[in-house]
Amino acid sequence: MCQFSAQDFTSARVELNIPLEIPDEQGSAELSMGSDTLDSLGRMLREWSPHAREMVLGFLDMTGSRDLLDLEVLHMRRIIFIGMIALLSMTPVWAADDVDTQNSTVGGTIPELCQILIAGDLTGLLTLTQDGTGESAYDAGFIESAADATTLTLDANKQWKLSVKYNAEWTCPGAYDKDETDLTIKITNSPTGTIQNSYDSYQSPPVANEEMLSHATGVSDNSVEIQTRVDLDWTTDIPGVYSITLVYTMETY
Question: What is the pTM of this model?
Answer without folding.
Answer: 0.62
